[in-house]
Amino acid sequence: MPSAVSAGTSGNEPGETMTDIAPPSPRGYVLAADQGLAPDRSDLKASADSTGGQLTVFTLSVDGGPPRHTHTHEDESIYLFSGLLEVECDGEEFEAAPGSFVFLPRERPHTFRSVGGTARGLLIITPGGLENYFDALHASLKTGDSSQVRAVQAEYGIRLS
Question: What CATH number corresponds to the domain at position 42?
Answer without folding.
Answer: 2.60.120.10
